[in-house]
Design goal:
Blueprint lengths: L5 E5 L2 E5 L7 H23 L1 H5 L8 H21 L5 H18 L6 H6 L1 H9 L2 H8 L5 E2 L2 E6 L2 E4 H4 L22 E3 L2 E3 L11 E4 L9 E9 L13 E7 L4 E8 L5 H7 L4 E7 L13 E9 L1 H17 L1 E3 L7 H10 L8 E3 H21 L2 H22 L7 H7 L18 E3 L1 H15 L2 H6 L11 H5 L4
Antiparallel strand pairs: 1-2, 3-4, 4-5, 6-7, 8-11, 9-10, 9-13, 10-11, 11-12, 12-14, 15-16
Helix pairs in contact: 1-3, 1-4, 3-4, 12-13
Amino acid sequence: MMYPLTLTHTGARWHLDTLVATDSKKETESAKLFQKAVKKLNHAFKMAAGDLQNKVHPMKNDAVYDEVYDAGKLIKKIETAIGKHASAEDKEAVGVLKRCVMSMRLGGSITPEILKANPEFEKFITANHWHHKAYRYEHVLPVIDGEPGVFYEGQGIKFSELMTKNDEENKPLVDPYSKKMPNCCIIKQGIMPWAQHNVKELFAHTQEDPSTWGDQYVYEIVTSLLDKEEKTPHFTGDHCWLRLRTKDGDVYSWGVVRPDITVWQGLKQRSTMMLNGAPECPDGFESLEKKEHHMLATQIPITEEQFEEIKGNLNKMNKNGVPFSVMTGLTCQGHVVHQASKIGVKINSEMTGATFIGKSFFGKTVNWLWKAIVPKVIRVVITYLFDFVLGLTVGRLLSIHAVDPKVRETYGDEFDGFTHNFFNIFKPVMVQHPLAMRKWQRKVEAFRNSDEGRRIGPWAMPEEFLTPKKKEAPQV
């Protein structure tokens, strides 16, 4: 059985002490996990002592981040080991560990004791994912007159004060039940009174040192993959979005998510291109757990005029609707590819429907056996037949050549590159996927690290990835 642990403070340093007694194999397992978690948190507290004292977010230190993250994973294992019918003492001990992790994620000023005394605040933090966003934006959430605080429009305020605020429609800013803020977003300045989802106007979500990108304007392609080996595509969890960086340090983030529609609405839409993509600013993936979402960014220098053009394009879609169609490739990634084409960059980030479905459904082992046992000629024939049937089915039944009239009215032929000719129903169905984009990024990365790339400079691009217009233009 585990007993509640104690938390002692010495200046900015914390230390966990626990007494664990066991009388069964099951309890021995949970006790070992418990002690491992305590050890990791104590190590994290020790390494973070200086940052905690100086009000610097401790998890910007990668070693501290790793220990806190690992402790969080161990806590989940402990909860599984002790089961739903754990004693009150066990639950309290686990609760202390969880609040220690939460405290570190929020910057360390709000202690586990304060979290325990303010359960509604903890619910608010979790509901709005601030325990992840605090690390992303280096927020050290304050304690004000003994109460937990937040940042609101750049200023520290008490959580109790936040709960009294109303939005423009005189509705509570924070939902009193779910504790979510549907009409607000959390960025570098803290809570801002406008929505992140279905955003209407692009805005900078953070400011960073522009010297790290050459004090210039940059178009940045970002991918996030669940598979760190970069082999298996996923239907959900993989993502692509863009960032725009200015020479003054402002960073914009924009992405598109799938429309919030029912299954019946999806069947009615089929694969028709429609104005129902949901734009996000900043993109929701900006603040995800970095150890579980493997991200890579590729930067491309642009001019101020190109920056303004792309920003204008995005704002037009924000206001008038974002064209979206999964089967034609006009997805989160399709929009990134499309905007890149406007600065003279060609991106081949597609894979056939057969490849996508095969790798997604059958996993690494089956795909390895497929390559090891089945001769290449037979694999090519089977894949071609699958692509043929898929193309015929999707082309005829799902009308992937169709475009909603509202798209034409708003954008003309702007997105015709993402429609299929009705008579090309025998061609393979191609899909945009972040795994294919990651391969493109790796090629750029390899070229920039090559002798030729180093001679050209840090922003070098393979010639085959540039349009003739871009080839003629000097490096920014």
